[in-house]
């Protein structure tokens, strides 16, 4: 019980001679160091707030302006055109200051006002520049002089050393598309999926909506866009994610995989030590806002809002809707192994634990032979099943006593860690089955060995392979991709391992061991757990997974053919689906809208008229190859156009979704919106950008490539 001794700073006993006080110097030291660390973080956040608030200028530029103005005043030159003198005349000094002091104070006030005006002008200029998105529609590699000048101005006004959130207030707001344009694009997207009569009917519904109900809903939506930072994101988070009452396992959460061919060490505790430490280093950079914003074309900043809730976050179940709980800091992680839960402190003596010390903590857990307490082993199944039973159970069985304390430790952890007792990963002798098992393990596992409500559930397998399961409501996959690439690269190329496969360095043996969480889970609660587990297992058993490595060619070859790799894959999917089903279907592809403040995603409707013409030509043996190639290029160009429109705020589906939400608030029934929002997406696709950080040279180390990640099968219906 070393952790109990660490928790007590002093003890006292009452004796006939008075009170005998015993202070624990070690505990007091830890209290002092913890408080010191907390104050350092507060000061750093305050400093970063100032730097972000004046970016792209800097506080030092204020001093430069002040010195320049004062210097010109001493040179008998008035840079203010008389304003300094007017400020001096209105100073309420009442004769307490000398003439020289009044002049300096007036110059100081004028230069400060001038500096604030310059900062505001620079920020507004940058915002105006970033509101231009015509560069996306220009052929790659052939920008006209006007775009080159625009790009140069963006680089000049973007500054040199931005912090993570420096560009947030300079990013434009997501615009509300014109109702007429959305109706036109919607009809164009469904035309290849409907026969003549069906399309005429849909045209009539769209026309009626555009003339009658639509304008009223559009007015409210524009009003929201003027008031809110982003007119989509808060409703999208609430209604698509947090209000869903079904299981988030498989249906919402997604996963990321380890290197495909490499296992840096076969020691489970060592791999956990390095990668957990790497994730904590990333969290420290994020806290200090040292992570550079993602830049498109190496110059166009993307929104960083989604990074804010990456760590120390948890989804709290509710009866009608869930909520997201986010803490500014967390000093521990929660670890699961063979049905037991542990709390592991991340700091000692005011510093972050070294990888070798985390390895020692993980090894202590692996060596622990204690058995799970009643109901403990399958407890996490509550987070894998339906949300309402979990919300009721949380209120009934986890609102007091040891259950409440232990649950809070999990929910307030920096992230959740599972030391898995299975071996996973790619095996050359059985590549398909091994990857299928690996992916399914990360997606749902045993349905009770991941805490699906945590923003991040980190999995370390018995053979040293790792993976990640992420809750979806707080952010999209590219955000996790950024973290994951950093973790993998830091693990292998910065931290490394000894020849024996252990983490480098010598651990401090005085660090308190992991703390076993205690539970009082009665039989009624165990019954709820088993019902949730049954629901989750049925869902997991219903998932058919098939993944395989493809190395015949990659995006490099596709680009050399002057075709977008994304468009290439989407056309291949359309062709494969038609060959399999003999029909076309509504196809969902996610694109990001992070060119706008707090932007998340938009839908690209990949099944276009051009795509269907290409597919039908491929199915026609009488068509010449030249004609097929021509139709393929037209389909790829159309897909690229759709993708660019989605990224620049002129997509279809988020606009229709928000119009539908407004109609529900107003109590207005719209046959058009009801039908549109009930259409199932039978083919749902997505992609995650690769090599966001360029920390690994894949030309030099081709084997250090991640297996990527994925989502469960979905059929999105918003009604």
UniProtKB/TrEMBL annotation:
It is a multi-pass membrane protein. One of its GO terms (biological process) is fatty acid beta-oxidation. Pathway: Lipid metabolism; fatty acid beta-oxidation. Coiled coil: none annotated. It holds the Pfam family CPT_N. The keyword Transport applies. Its EC number is 2.3.1.21. It catalyses: (R)-carnitine + hexadecanoyl-CoA = O-hexadecanoyl-(R)-carnitine + CoA. Keywords: Acyltransferase, Fatty acid metabolism, Lipid metabolism, Membrane, Mitochondrion, Transferase, Transmembrane, Transmembrane helix, Transport. Residues 1-46 form the Carnitine O-palmitoyltransferase N-terminal domain. One of its GO terms (molecular function) is carnitine O-palmitoyltransferase activity. The keyword Zinc does not apply. The active site is at residue 472. InterPro entries: Carn_acyl_trans, CAT-like_dom_sf, Cho/carn_acyl_trans, Cho/carn_acyl_trans_2, CPT_N. The chain crosses the membrane at residues 50-75. Residues 174-714 form the Choline/carnitine acyltransferase domain. GO terms for cellular component: mitochondrial outer membrane. It is an enzyme of class 2 (transferase). It is found in: Mitochondrion outer membrane. Belongs to the carnitine/choline acetyltransferase family. This is carnitine O-palmitoyltransferase. It comes from Scyliorhinus torazame. The lineage of its organism: Eukaryota, Metazoa, Chordata, Craniata, Vertebrata.
């Amino acid at each position: 019980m070393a952790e109990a001794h660490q928790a007590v700073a002093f003890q006292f006993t009452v004796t006939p001679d008075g009170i005998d006080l015993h202070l624990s110097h070690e505990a007091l030291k830890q209290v002092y160091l913890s408080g010191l660390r907390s104050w350092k973080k507060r000061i750093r956040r305050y400093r970063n707030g100032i730097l972000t608030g004046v970016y792209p200028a800097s506080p030092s530029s204020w001093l430069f302006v002040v010195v320049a103005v004062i210097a010109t005043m001493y040179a008998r030159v008035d840079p203010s055109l008389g304003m300094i003198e007017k400020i001096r005349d209105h100073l309420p000094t009442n004769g307490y200051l000398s003439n020289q002091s009044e002049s300096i104070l007036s110059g100081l006030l004028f230069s400060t006002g001038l500096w604030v005006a310059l900062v505001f002008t620079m920020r507004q200029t940058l915002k105006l520049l970033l509101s231009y998105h015509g560069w996306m529609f220009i052929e790659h590699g052939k920008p006209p002089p006007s775009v080159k000048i625009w790009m140069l101005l963006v680089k000049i006004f973007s500054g040199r050393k931005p912090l993570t959130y420096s560009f947030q207030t300079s990013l434009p707001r997501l615009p509300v598309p014109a109702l007429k344009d959305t109706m036109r694009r919607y009809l164009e997207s469904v035309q290849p999926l409907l026969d003549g009569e069906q399309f005429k009917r849909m045209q009539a519904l769209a026309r009626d909506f555009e003339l009658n109900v639509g304008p009223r809903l559009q007015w409210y939506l524009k009003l929201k866009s003027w008031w809110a930072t982003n007119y989509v994101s808060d409703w999208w988070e609430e209604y698509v994610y947090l209000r869903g009452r079904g299981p988030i396992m498989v249906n919402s959460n997604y996963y990321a995989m380890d290197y495909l061919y490499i296992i840096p060490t076969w020691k489970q505790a060592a791999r956990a030590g390095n990668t957990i430490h790497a994730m904590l280093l990333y969290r420290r950079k994020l806290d200090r806002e040292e992570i550079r914003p993602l830049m498109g074309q190496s110059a166009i900043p993307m929104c960083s809002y989604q990074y804010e809730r990456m760590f120390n976050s948890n989804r709290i179940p509710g009866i009608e809707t869930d909520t997201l709980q986010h803490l500014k800091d967390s000093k521990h992680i929660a670890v699961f192994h063979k049905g037991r839960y542990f709390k592991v402190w991340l700091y000692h003596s005011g510093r972050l634990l070294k990888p070798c010390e985390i390895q020692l903590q993980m090894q202590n857990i692996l060596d622990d032979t204690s058995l799970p307490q009643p109901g403990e082993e399958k407890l996490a199944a509550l987070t894998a099943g339906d949300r309402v039973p979990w919300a009721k159970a949380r209120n009934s069985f986890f609102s007091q006593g040891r259950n409440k304390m232990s649950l809070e430790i999990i929910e307030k952890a920096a992230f959740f860690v599972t030391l898995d007792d299975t071996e996973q990963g790619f095996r050359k002798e059985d590549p398909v089955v091994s990857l299928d098992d690996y992916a399914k393990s990360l997606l749902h596992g045993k349905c009770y060995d991941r805490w699906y409500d945590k923003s991040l559930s980190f999995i370390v397998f018995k053979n040293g392979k790792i993976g990640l399961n992420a809750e979806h409501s707080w952010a999209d996959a590219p955000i996790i991709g950024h973290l994951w690439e950093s973790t993998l690269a830091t693990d292998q190329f910065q931290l490394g391992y000894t020849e024996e496969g252990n983490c480098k360095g010598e651990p401090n043996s005085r660090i308190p061991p992991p703390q076993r969480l205690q539970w009082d889970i009665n039989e009624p609660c165990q019954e709820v757990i088993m019902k949730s587990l049954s629901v989750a297992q049925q869902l997991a058993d219903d998932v058919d997974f098939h993944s395989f490595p493809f190395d015949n060619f990659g995006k490099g070859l596709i680009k050399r053919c002057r075709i977008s790799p994304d468009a290439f894959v989407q056309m291949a999917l359309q062709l494969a689906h038609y060959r399999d089903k003999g029909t076309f279907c509504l196809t969902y592809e996610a694109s990001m809208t992070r060119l706008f403040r707090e932007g998340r995603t938009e839908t690209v409707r990949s099944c276009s008229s051009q795509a269907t013409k290409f597919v039908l030509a491929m199915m026609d043996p009488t068509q010449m190859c030249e004609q097929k190639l021509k139709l393929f290029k037209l389909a790829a160009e159309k897909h690229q156009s759709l993708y660019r429109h989605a990224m620049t705020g002129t997509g279809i589906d988020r606009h229709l979704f928000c119009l539908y939400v407004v109609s529900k608030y107003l109590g207005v029934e719209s046959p058009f919106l009801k039908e549109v929002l009930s259409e199932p997406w039978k083919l749902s696709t997505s992609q995650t950008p690769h090599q966001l950080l360029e920390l690994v040279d894949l030309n030099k180390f081709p084997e250090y490539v991640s297996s990527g990640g994925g989502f469960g099968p979905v059929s999105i219906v918003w009604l």
